[in-house]
Design goal:
Strand content: 25-35%
Number of helices: 3
Helix content: 25-40%
Shape: globular
Largest sheet: 4 strands, antiparallel
Distance between the termini: 45 Å
Strand order of the largest sheet: 3-4-5-6
Number of strands: 6
């Protein structure tokens, strides 16, 4: 559904937030071990709108959110817009892509605030 408010066009959809311990993501786990620092949990924000999923990621309670990827829901066999089907699809997308997300910029900023110079492997 599209709403208009003044000079803004608003497309309504659904959003989901998934949180996992940073050790469950290879890049974050390696950085934590390498620099011997606890890294906050990872949060993945998924927005479903017009048949497309847009995914963003961040560290919990840390101020940088980055675009991760987007996919068409039909590519994952999603044909209906039922909330249950969309949730299942979201989890499938995360399971397939969690280790492909680039965390370098977020890690660099976070570790620099901790006084650590981050070097990508």
């Amino acid at each position: 559904e599209i709403l208009r408010h003044g000079s803004f066009k608003v497309d309504e959809g659904m959003s989901f937030v998934a949180t996992t311990e940073s050790r469950n993501i290879e890049e974050l786990r390696k950085a934590s071990e390498k620099y011997r620092v606890d890294i906050p949990d990872a949060r993945i924000i998924i927005i479903y709108n017009n048949g497309c999923f847009e995914c963003y990621h961040e560290l919990e309670d840390y101020g940088i959110t980055e675009y991760a990827f987007s996919v068409e829901g039909q590519g994952f066999g999603l044909s209906a817009d039922s909330e249950e089907d969309i949730r299942k699809c979201v989890m499938q997308i995360l399971a397939s892509n969690i280790d492909n997300m680039y965390w370098g910029r977020i890690l660099k900023e976070y570790l620099e605030e901790e006084g650590i110079e981050y070097e990508e492997d």
